[in-house]
Amino acid sequence: MYKIGTCFGCQKCLYCGVNLKIEICDCNKTAKPSRKNRTDLVKNAFTRVFNPISNPKQIDFIKNKNDSFAYGFDLAKGFQFSFCSTCNSSYQRLSNKKSKSNNSSQKVRTSENVIQLEENIEIIDVESTTEISQESTTSDGSTFYNKSKRSNSETENEDSTELEIEVNYKLSIKKADGTSLPAKNYSVIISELDEFLLSIQNNITALLKDEKIDANDYNVSFKSEKTQGAGTLLVDVRDFENFKSEYTKLVVAKKVMLISITMNKKEKQVDVKRKKKVIFKLLLIFLFLKKLILYF
User: How are beta strands 143-151 and 160-174 bridged, if at all?
Assistant: First the structure.
């Protein structure tokens, strides 16, 4: 069973740095690694949220590790895990995102509908780091947080940048039978697509009171609340970049972002049982006729 204090990719202890494939340590690996509970042997730790509809190459990477170390995760659902610096870099290289230079950035100018878009990586308590933090608040209270952390460690050749966005949105759910639930307002601070999708999934399961719902059971789209039409699907990184751009424009225009959920139709369990019974009866008839033909 996987524990959050272990690197998902190589089974390195994210507290003492021991290779758990070879040695055993006494660290409490059920606690989230932080500066307070890590030793100097572990400079960085990265937490992530798995999204079952994310980049195919990254999904294959997670599936390979899940099978290799027998973690037992259901890859049809989202879950949280941690990486060491090496595995996090390998995972990032599998992304479809175009690489950006270390110091490249865009100015945050909310009044001109521009928001800084940089590599979204959640970094836990980086040692020997200088942090520069900026906060921009829009007229409707939405806040964009931009934290840049530069590591002095020789093992880290890249600047690590984290962009957090506070998203205020209205969630609307259309059930498989065509009926819709009353919309509900939510607010969440996110830095990556998978975090946002997992947050949305948690809200869906809470509203429908069904913990068995996973990402394959529905489609997610976004649009302005007053806009006609189906909206734009929110599936991959490109969609997420478009979402952030559209959200910035709506914030400036003081409009509401609507996240629409369309539940997929599921075959009723009763129908499945009936089909099995019919197939079984047909099989018996076939065997009976076969014996009858051989007899004559």
Answer: antiparallel
**How far apart are the C-alpha atoms of 114 and 248, rounded to whole Å?**
7
User: Cα separations (Å) of 131 from 41, 149, 150?
Assistant: 21, 5, 7
Radius of gyration of the chain (CA): 24
Residue 49 in tokens = 């949220």
| Residue 68: strand, helix, or coil | helix
How do the domains of the chain map onto residue ranges?
1-96, 167-263
DSSP 94: T
pLDDT in tens, 30-78: 887 777 777 778 877 877 888 787 788 888 999 999 999 999 888 888 8
Extended strands (E) in the chain: 45-50, 79-83, 123-124, 129-137, 143-151, 160-174, 184-190, 218-224, 232-233, 257-263
Positive or negative, the CA dihedral 7, 74, 170, 193 is positive
Report pLDDT digits (tens) over 16-37. Answer: 888 888 888 888 888 877 777 7
Token digits of residue 132: 């520069």
* Dist CA 44 CA 48 (whole Å): 13
Distance of alpha carbon 48 from alpha carbon 38, whole angstroms: 18
Q: CATH for 167-263?
A: 3.10.20.90
- What is the distance between the alpha carbons of residues 55 and 91, in angstroms, rounded to a whole number? 10
